[in-house]
Amino acid sequence: MRGARAAGVPHRPPGPTGSPVTVHEEPLAGGNTGVVVRVGDTVRRQAGPWTPAVHALLDHLETVGFDGAPRALGTDELGREVASYVEGVAGTLGPQPLAPEFQTIEACRAIGAWVRAFHDAQAGFAPDPALPWRVVPGRALRPGEVVVHHDVGTYNTVLRPDGSFAVIDFDFASPGAPVEDLAYVLWSWTPLWGESAAVRREMGAVTMADRLHKFAAVLDGYAADADLRAQVPDAVLQCMTDHSRTVEELAAQGDPAFVRMVADGHAEHPLRDAEWFASRRELFAAAIAPSGVRGSE
Ligand SMILES: Nc1ncnc2c1ncn2[C@@H]1O[C@H](COP(=O)(O)OP(=O)(O)OP(=O)(O)O)[C@@H](O)[C@H]1O
Ligand SMILES: [Mg+2]
After folding, report:
1. What residue's CA is closest to ligand 1, atom 14?
2. Mean pLDDT for the chain?
3. At residue 263, what are phi and psi to the nearest 5 degrees?
4. Does 158 sit in the ligand 1 pocket, CB within 6 Å?
């Protein structure tokens, strides 16, 4: 759902001498859950109890030189999260058409490679168990786990002028298995929903052959081994049902953005997508088997 956003309202924080300074805030369209504005080279977004954990992760990524994510820049005088603005074209999920650059096999390979680099860049990062994530409490990573972004949709990705992708909106990051990020990418980028949903989400027509190649390309981009490939079909279904449940739970807790999302079908659509995928599961599994359809063809 693309929420209606406030028109560009200048806001007036106190200047250094207490006099008001007008700062131009440009609303950024494309999000579902919060009001996001651009102020100069920064974006301002709703902060929450999860923000310190997310910023610790973003700080680590910056320290190790991973540049595929915004930089965390603290919070502003209104308590909003401040992050660096990533220049480029942001992906969408309707109502405007998804840019063709996000719908190619190369894009799928590149986003798979982004996930790989994001996971690899976490070597040596130990999240502070005292810091909560948005939907789960803080905890140490278990063996084999990483901090999973959980929301690497086309709509949270920016195509930069140099042709590389950066991913934004780490609100749903939390510890988990690497395959969880791949499952979400496969769902969004292949995409794993029926034709009518593809049209509704402004992705145009996608053939099954194209979907199978994209599915394989994501895993090739990640350099997924046989064990990981074997986990993928179950992980995709789990991801869809978990997503539906999370939307329901946040709505039940009274979060207005999620109440709106449930009303707009965002708890229900993932379950339909899961049915769509379940009935084609063997085709997709074959495409990522070592002798299956290869994304590089
Ligand atoms: N760091 C950033 N750099 C560039 N653009 C950004 C950045 N953060 C957000 N945007 C823009 O603002 C839009 C909404 O941002 P964001 O995804 O953070 O909002 P949201 O409401 O949390 O979204 P979601 O629907 O994923 O919950 C994005 O689609 C993108 O166009
Ligand atoms: Mg977003």
Report:
1. 31
2. 90
3. -60, -30
4. yes
In the chain, ranges of CATH 1.10.510.10 domains: 89-288
Distance of CA 286 to the CA centre of its chain: 26
Q: What is the mean pLDDT of residues 9-14?
A: 50
- pLDDT single digits (tens) 72-115: 999 999 999 999 999 999 999 888 899 999 999 999 999 999 99
266 lines ligand 1 (CB under 6 A): no
Question: Does residue 72 line the site of ligand 1, with CB under 6 A?
Answer: no
Class level of CATH domain 89-288: mainly alpha
CB of residue 42 inside a 6 A radius of ligand 1: no
Q: Is 47 in the pocket of ligand 1 (CB under 6 A)?
A: no
Cα→Cα distances 158→86, 107, 131, Å: 7, 12, 28
What is the number of the ligand 1 atom nearest to the C-alpha of 3? 21
- As annotated, the residues of the chain forming the CATH 3.30.200 domain(s) are 26-84
β-partners of residue 83 are 43, 72
- What residue owns the CA closest to ligand 1's atom 7? 85
26-84: CATH topology: Phosphorylase Kinase; domain 1 (3.30.200)
Closest CA to 67 of 173, 156, 151, 167: 167
pLDDT at position 67 is: 97
Is pTM beyond 0.85? Reply is: yes
